[in-house]
């Protein structure tokens, strides 16, 4: 309420449009009453308010506090605003830093909460915390002077929660000996933030030689000092929106991708993801369930075919003198299947028909992707394989009606999923 009161006064002087958001986590039996209180207050102030209900996801892995925070920030990211102002204060910052220290966080984590956090996508608002250097006592004093009303969350006294334990049990003891601990911890967080920024700059410099086509080069990682290589890995994960692995798992990833034998099959599990290596490059892949070898999908002339089993889209476009010979292709039923073994293809008219296994081994297609590639058949004849080409007998000649096929697949498990595109229109000999 203090932050809303301050911003309401500033909005008139600085002429910006102010609205409020209340996130209902639906965790307290009083959650509905809190939402109504906020509605009444904003109505009296003439401020528009958006009440957002969220469902806190399974909290067993991260804890209820972390799960609620994630749900809350997802709600913030969907607001149509330039900035979302949060009322975190100096005491909150001190609690956050000590919690992170006790959990063994690194430099970036110990930067704690920034005063300004820029949006991570085009449509999301920036996050600002204008009260971050103000202690709780001053905020409460302001509220009393202004005769503001507020509601205390009953869970704030539950010392079973780590943050509350620090607030009610630990910090009163620290404060008796170190009265300025809040300011000291806040200053430490700014030092950590500067160090984290320098580490990011170093990682960005290292990435110029270590990143090739968006993937990390294993040899470049191996040539870096261990601490520097780990820093680059953390940077790579962060840039791709991936969950940061713990120190032990990060060391395992570094050892496997950078120092294992060149012919070793590298695979390090990371929840729903796994880190792999192929031809000296590091891949981050989603773990897929086993695919039914009998998978078969008929093409009925659609311009776009979404294949959920293969997590991709196949697009078809009529052409002239490019792609596949349309008339010949359609002489028999056109189907899309996956590898069984024994398939043959002749993408190069100057060479004999070859096994698909050999063609794939010569390609730059990673082994784990090969079993999930859509193979296009006309009857029982293999016609097109993404990344390999079109069978010579089915390549459209000059003036013939052709069919170009493009296959797009999301091959990472990150929120910034990269796309690999294979086209049949550029594979003619």
Put the structure in a nutshell.
This protein is α+β, with helices and mostly antiparallel strands and 429 residues long.
How is this structure best described in words?
- The longest helix is centred in the middle third of the chain and has 30 residues, at 181-210.
- The chain is α+β, with helices and mostly antiparallel strands.
- It is built from 14 helices and 22 strands.
- Mean pLDDT is 88; it is low at 411-419 and 423-429.
- Helix 4 crosses helix 7 (162-177).
- The strands form seven sheets. It has a five-stranded antiparallel sheet with strand order 11-15-18-19-20, with no helix packed on it.
- It is elongated and about 85 Å long.
What descriptors fit this protein?
single chain, 429 residues, alpha+beta, Rossmann fold, Chorismate Mutase Domain, subunit A, 5-stranded antiparallel sheet, 14 helices, disordered C terminus
